[in-house]
């Protein structure tokens, strides 16, 4: 009880600071429709969220985060531009006992700004950096848009690029696919057997049709497997460049210089790199020491999957602790939840319980 009370105190301080920055405080339901989250993340979300059944509303989930319901609220009737803040419990399953709690208080700040997204990125990060400064945390940044642009620029089948993009947030599976598409790993035996059967003219149509996929979907999937088997591997040079990008970790200006060099062979990333440079300029104007600000190209790949641009986090010295704060840009999510409408959006969350554990912020 004492831990929750301390978290509530820090949450109130943070919400007051966000309100002072121009945000409107909002609330969302603790029980959220499971259908929306399943559509966004697929069945994988079940391993992370608490699912229950309501006799009237159907399958529901205990709120795993605030961003999705806040975006839904804004896209339904929000004015532009808009800034929101919130505080409340979120619930996420943990695979093993750890410093990560299954239920904890989350405080957040979200900005919906159409005219200058780069300035909004800098605004959110600089605000978090100022509020968290008393804790002496380590900040890290990244940009999912650079990585996705690099994948889209590969000279290979669209189906392969789609598979890699789908698994960007699952680094191990991404690496396995890249190894296979690059010819560095063998095709799984089960797929080899299926391809042999298909090449011999056999089709699974004689077996009873079971499962959710239609016969047309199954036929399209089989055709894609045959096309993939006959396609040339992704070149060793392209794989090496992509791995170089994935492994890039340096202070912001040095990372930018390296990425500028990479655009000579990877022109697809140029627009995202231009945005990164503009963002670094905006961060510097907001008082951030970009010369020491860490940039990691793979940063943000293990978070929820709606981030599609700038990402950031703040960490305590204890590596066993989860990030004290994290956030990023999620433009595509607003289009998905806006039913055809969209607006650039960026935000972040802070764990006030961790803030209290680390000594608290004092007056913000």
TrEMBL record:
One Pfam family here: tRNA-synt_His
Glycosyltransferase in keyword set: yes
Origin superkingdom: Bacteria
Keywords: Glycosyltransferase, Transferase
Domain Aminoacyl-transfer RNA synthetases class-II family profile: 18-363
Single GO MF descriptor: glycosyltransferase activity
Keyword Glycosyltransferase: yes
Matches recorded under InterPro entries: aa-tRNA-synth_II, aa-tRNA-synth_II/BPL/LPL, HisRS-like_core, HisRS/HisZ
Quaternary context: Homodimer.
Annotated protein name in UniProt: Histidine--tRNA ligase
Organism: Albidovulum sediminis
Top-level taxonomy: Bacteria, Pseudomonadati, Pseudomonadota, Alphaproteobacteria, Rhodobacterales
